[in-house]
Structure formats: C-alpha cells, structure tokens
Amino acid sequence: MKVFMINTVCGIGSTGRICTDIATYLLENKHECIIAYGQGSTQYSYSYKIGRTFENHLHNIGSRVLGLQGYFTKKGTRKLIEKIREENPDIIHLHNLHGNYLNLELLFDFLKDFKGKIFWTLHDCWAYTGKCAHYTDVKCFKWKEKCSICPQVNKYPPSMLLDQSEKMFFDKKRWYSMLPNLHVICVSDWLKNEAKQSLLLGKQRVERVYNWIDHETFKYIQGSVKEELNLPEEKKIVLCVSAAWNKSDEKFKKLLQLSDVLTDDYLLLVVGKINSKVKKKNILYVPYVSGKEKMAEIYSVADVYLHLSTEDTFGLVIGEAMACGTPVVVFNSTACSEVVGSVECGSVIENNDIMQIVNKISEIVAASKQSYSEKCRNYVMEKYDINKNINLLLTLYLN
After folding, report:
1. Where residue 281 sits, what CATH number does that domain have?
2. With 0-12 CB in 10 A as exposed, 13-18 as middle and 19+ as buried, what is 353?
3. What sign does the dihedral 211-217-222-223 (CA atoms) show?
4. What number of other Cβ atoms are within 10 A of residue 366's Cβ?
5. CA-to-CA distance for 378 and 104, rounded, in angstroms?
6. Do 135 and 254 have their domain in common?
7. Buried-most residue among 55, 106, 223, 331 (CB within 10 A)?
8. How many other CB atoms are found less than 10 A from the CB of residue 8?
9. Residue 219 lies in a domain
10. Cα–Cα distance between 292 and 319 in angstroms, integer?
11. How would you list the strands of the sheet with 328-331, edge to edge?
C-alpha cells in the first residue's frame, strides 16, 4: 500500500510530527509513504516540497490583502498533482491544507477524479468554516448554515481588507460535493461532533482517531533542568506551555492575573516564544526548548501543568504533561477536558475564574503530585498509545 500525505509542514510542529509518525509506522510495516509539504524543511527522506518560497510569499500576500486562503499561484500545485500521478498512490491523506502553499481549486479538481481512497484528518476547524481555524472564544456558529460577516476577519488567516468568508464557505461546499467518498478523521470526539453539525462536512463519513503521545520519550525524567534553569527548591512549579505568548492574547492576560494572586510559594514556569515579555518576580520565561527529551524534563519538574488555552481540538501538551506524571488543570472548553478524561489526572475548571484556578492548583499540591502521577501516565498509555492509535488509522485505510 502506498500513502501520499499532504500537510503544511513535515516532521516539525505538532501536525508535521504526526505525519512523520504515521509514515514511520507505515514503513516499518512494509508500506510506502510520501509526505508533500509546503512550509519549512524536513529530514524525512520520502518527502516532496510543494512550490518555492517566492510562491508561498505570493500566496501569503494574496491571502492578507484579498482575504482568500488557497486561491493564488498555481505552479506548485500543478507540479504536486504531477508528483501524485507519478507516484500513483492507493491513498491520499490530507492534513492541514491552509497555510498559503496550495491552490485549492486545482487540488480538489484533481481529487474528484482520483480512483483511490481520500482521507482528511482535521487538526482544527478550518475545513468546515468559511475562514477561521477556531470560533468558540467568539461564540460564532455561523458555519452550521452559512459563514458571512466574519467576526475574526483580522485573525488567522488574517485579511487586511476584505471579508471573503462567505465566498470561501460556498467554494468549500462545492469542492467537497465533488468527493462523495471522502473519509473525514477528527482527533477528538469534540471535533467530530462539531464537524457532524456543519453544513460542509455533516453528511460525510466522520471517524475519530485520537492523536498520540510518544510515552517512551515523554515520561518522568530526573534530569538537570532544575539546575540549568536555577529553579528554587522551596517553590512549587506551575508550568504553562504555548507555541507563542502575545500580550493581546487572553491566555497571556490570564497568566498575568494569576501571577498577581498566587502566593510566594509558587513559581510560574512559562515555556514558548515570548512576543510580549512582562517582568514578574514569580514568572520565569523559557522561550526555547531544544528537543523532546528536554521538554520531558521540564514537564517532570513541574508540580502542576496549567493549560490556559480554551481552543484546542486535542491539546498534545496536556497529554505530554500527563505522560510525564504531572497532573493538569484545564478549562472545560473544546477538547481540553476530553484529553484529561478523569479527575484522577487533575482538574477541569468550568469558567475562567482566576481564584478557581488558584484553588485547584492548591488542592493538587496539597494532595501531592505523587498521588496523581501513576494514574496520569497510565491514562495516557491506555488512550493515546502511538502504536494502538496509528494502527486504528491503518485499519481505516484498509477497510
């Protein structure tokens, strides 16, 4: 069996690592897998770069100025289609198609005549909205009937001038109608239930296959990170992780509010790219962590992992923290509580009340991290095992 995957990135970022995890599993089981990607670079051998950097810049400019995602330069997509024809795969597996690297009209026009199976893993909500990747924070549910007058026109993917959400919504409707045998895979039950309510994907076959955690890497590690970061022995460590922290983001505002009310017994360890650093005596910023093993050390040294995001279709960092034996505190929003699964692994907060966060952190610390650790790790190994979940995906391929 030969699988041809398409994603924004390959081997980097959460979706890029998911693609190479699948590819590695396929290769180990005597199958073939090519990954086509549009941004960055990769060390995966059987890969194909879509378009050139200049093309991607033109895509980006067109998207920002005209508000259309995936409508511009055609050369890279035409060559991609030639590559797919040359490889003649049994399965095309789509992942993130947004990211300014594809001409979607050309791609879907090709896919309608493809004789093999087509799968599409949704890592966010973009596939069934007119524009946005997430919508719960602004409480916009127009995607159930018709997107228009987008309340997030300036957010990802941002438009400087025009709101084209209605056009993109109905273009997607037309494109998907050409693929009656499309198999949609969602990474959580929350996302599956949302997709089934959408006008665009509600009539498609939709399955749920959880993301997975590499629990051989993400496990309790007593490394040197405490000394390297000069973490005080007397402090309880509350870890917060995000790809980026921006002053305008709600999660960053919550972080600062929390720093004002936590007692001196706690230190907030904040990992991720810092675009708007605000100095606080109880916040230690770590903008870059090199390697998954070092990240596992950081999860391991924390007493509590606090997830401040409210828009996650899975939340890999939640599962990674649990795999390292660290209890978590999350909001009861999108798939966050689903990933935690059990109060034995931490706490789910019903609202954004900062004092409720403080109280839950205090409860976990009082009970001791050790009382949660084994249950957290066992839950991850049961629900998010890499071999079991990729094998489930393979079963869908073969059915």
Report:
1. 3.40.50.2000
2. exposed
3. negative
4. 8
5. 42
6. no
7. 331
8. 23
9. no
10. 13
11. 283-286, 266-274, 236-245, 304-306, 328-331, 346-349
Q: Is the pLDDT reported for residue 276 higher than 80?
A: no
Considering the domain architecture, whether residues 276 and 310 belong to the same structural domain is answered as yes
Give Cα 345 distance to the centre of its chain: 21
Q: Are residues 166 and 232 in the same domain?
A: no
Domain extent, residue 10, equals 2-212+386-398
- Total domains in the chain come to 2
- The rounded distance, in Å, linking the Cα atoms of 37 and 34 is 10
Across 188-212, b (16+ Cβ under 10 Å) vs e yields: bebbbebbeebbbbeebebebbbbb
Over the stretch 142-187, which tens digit does the pLDDT of each residue have?
999 999 999 999 999 899 889 999 999 999 999 999 998 899 999 9
Please state, in angstroms and rounded to a whole number, the distance separating the CA atoms of residues 125 and 313: 8
CB 362 within 8 A of CB 262: no
String of b and e for 229-255 (b: at least 16 CB within 10 Å)?
bebeeebbbbbbbbeebeeebebbebb
> Is-contact 178 112, C-beta < 8 A?
yes
Q: Return the bridge partners of 91, or none.
A: 3, 117
Q: Is residue 220 part of a domain?
A: no
Pair of tokens at residue 198:
């959408």
Whole-model pTM: value is 0.95
Other CB atoms within a 10 A radius of the CB of residue 348 amount to 19
pLDDT tens digits along 359-378: 999 999 999 999 999 999 99
